[in-house]
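Obj: model holo form, ligand = coenzyme A.
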Amino acid sequence: MRDKAFASALEFVLVPSPWTGRSPNIARNDYGDVDVKGEKMSQPNTLDSMRAELSALGLEAGDTVMVHSSLGKIGWTVGGPVTVIRALLEITGPDGTLVMPAESPQVSDPSAWNDDRVKPEWHATIRKHLPVFDPLTTPTSMGAIPEAFRTFPGTLRSDHPLVSVCANGRYAVDITREHALEFSEGRGTPFEKLYVLNSKTLLLGVGFNRCTQLHYAESLVEARRTTRDRVPIMENGKKVWKDTLNMGADNGFHFPNVGAEFLTTGQVRSGLVGQAESKLLNTRQLVDFAVPCFTKILK
Ligand SMILES: CC(C)(COP(=O)(O)OP(=O)(O)OC[C@H]1O[C@@H](n2cnc3c(N)ncnc32)[C@H](O)[C@@H]1OP(=O)(O)O)[C@@H](O)C(=O)NCCC(=O)NCCS
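Output (holo structure tokens):
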């Protein structure tokens, strides 16, 4: 499947901007302005340079890796998001699995959107007509790289209206097969599989505030923070609205501190990929470190 992916990925693909609603999960990168004009770069990033820098960071053949990314922070890249995806797939190879978040916060009740373009008097119409989540067509707001990745040949997507995950490679079926509607980052979800599979987590130009695996760690703690979401789903061939219990947003409150503490353990590889400050770590080590942290912080 992957060979086909590479063959079809040779052309530059102009990916539309991600959905720009105002969910706390999709704020602009909080690590400064993007350098899309490449003013600080002597050469643009290429497939070769990306491959070399990702390998230097410690990404290896056979890795299962969840990637959170900012293309803008990587800097101007020949071929855009597709080049980044190709570099990741080429390194991890046929025994590896590339995983990305494919969240779709727009598949929810409009009263939760906090979007001033949407008038309150429209809510009833929106509720009636909002399409349910469709793994093939629902866009993700997790950035240009995940948005390109979700339609790569061979990419599978888990079936969750809000917090789906895309995976391509050896464990793609295992990772995307089961996704609990409630506590969508906890047990019975791809995030548990990523823990079990001893995967890596790669932060490409983003911080620990974007590391969904920390929601998984928090979900294992008794005093976890929760929120209620309202989502449209299909039941017996009919669209129904369901209330679900989920992990609450962190909004950069605890996650950056837990990440900073984890950095001091020396278990994180840091380096530049393009212009992006990036971090590669073992997911299980992070979760095992974070669970006692959350137990202490949230008691
Ligand atoms: C929100 C977020 C995606 C924004 O990052 P970003 O770099 O501004 O946006 P994208 O990754 O979508 O990249 C698009 C940007 O790439 C830049 N770009 C365009 N072509 C490019 C190219 N060929 N090479 C490099 N950059 C290019 C543009 O600046 C574009 O921004 P625009 O849409 O304003 O024009 C990022 O900060 C983030 O949070 N990522 C992680 C998301 C995540 O995994 N969340 C998990 C749950 S919390």
